[in-house]
Specification:
This protein is α+β, with helices and mostly antiparallel strands. It is 34% helix and 24% strand. Pfam families: SPRY.
């Protein structure tokens, strides 16, 4: 191939500028590219001479040289490319095997993670169930403190306008001829203790008319009239929604008001000194109502005051309330 016939300069002039000083393989590449270019030109312009004419037919075997060149070039190209293809295929096979192995490992790891997550979720579920059971038991224990000795209204601390009726002494009826606050206290007091988890609570249901107030007072009053609301250490709720905290009127809230057919409650969360108000079994927002720190370890007395003749309430000192105690 390095001794190409160049006797006809005119016929080979298109190749002369790029063939000199090239190696055999480079010559082959140039010739192949040139032949392909000429073939494309012949396809577009049929009037142009064929590649055989461009190389010339001088009767000295130049035609054979062209075909020999093409065959030899094809063989060398095939010999040259085949090893490359084989190596590329081998590399591709190894890459695919590696990918397959990595995917397998990833699936195994994913399954292991899934199993571990499932176990953790199951353990968490069991733990939450145990916590729920413990909380329920604790709330049931706290419930026992709410009874405070099965309380009832005391006949010896009762305004003359009031009458206690019923077998359990839980119903109070205003039977006086004049209007005005008439009060009564429960028999047993409660003792706050900020070192305990006690919650003290009771409810009243309005049976007739609705002018009343109820709550806790630090001490029993000798004068059983409306002045109880103004005493320090008194925490109460009036039927018109007026709230009394430590002997002072704080605010009147419409949703706190109550009347005939309603059941309202008041409680004290001893360790945090929080006053709790409820209505018809639902807790009212009372996060800011606190027992003064000076009364944190004092005794508290449940009381109720009725205004008009005919007013009637019934107290519930526990253990079963309208309120679900587990919500406290």
């Amino acid at each position: 191939m390095s001794t190409l016939n160049t006797s006809s300069a005119d016929e080979f002039s298109p190749l002369q500028p790029i063939i000199p000083n090239l190696s055999t393989s480079e010559e082959m590449s140039v010739l192949i590219a040139r032949i392909a270019e000429l073939n494309r030109a012949n396809t577009v312009e049929p009037s142009i001479a064929s590649s055989a004419d461009l190389f010339g037919q001088d009767g000295n075997g130049s035609d054979d040289n062209e075909f020999n060149l093409d065959d030899e070039n094809g063989q060398k190209k095939e010999e040259k490319e085949t090893p490359k293809n084989e190596v590329s295929g081998d590399q591709l096979s190894k890459i695919l095997e590696k990918i397959s192995e990595m995917e397998k490992q990833q699936k195994e790891q994913s399954k292991a993670n899934s199993d571990q997550l499932s176990k953790m979720q199951n353990d968490q579920k069991i733990l939450l169930e145990k916590i729920s059971e413990l909380e329920k038991e604790q709330k049931q224990k706290r419930k026992a403190f709410l009874n405070f000795r099965q309380n009832y209204w005391a006949t010896n601390v009762c305004h003359e306008n009031l009458q206690i009726i019923g077998r359990k002494n839980h119903i109070v009826h205003h039977v006086g001829n004049t209007s005005g606050w008439s009060s009564i206290f429960a028999k047993h007091q409660i003792l706050l203790n900020n070192n305990s988890s006690d919650i003290f609570y009771y409810e009243i249901s309005v049976k007739d008319k609705e002018s009343c107030n109820f709550g806790f007072a630090v001490k029993q009053q000798n004068k059983l009239d409306g002045t109880i609301l103004y005493e320090k250490g008194t925490y109460a709720l009036e039927s018109d929604g007026q709230i009394w905290i430590n002997g002072k009127a704080k605010e009147r809230i419409a949703k706190y008001s109550y009347g005939v057919g309603d059941t309202v409650g008041i409680g004290v969360n001893s360790p945090i000194r929080q006053i709790i108000f409820t209505k018809n079994g639902l807790r009212l927002d009372s996060a800011d109502f606190l027992v003064a720190s000076s009364f944190a370890n004092d005794s508290f007395h449940p009381f109720v005051s009725l205004w008009n003749s005919g007013d009637k309430i019934e107290a519930n000192f526990g253990p079963n309330f309208k309120l679900d105690l587990t919500t406290l």
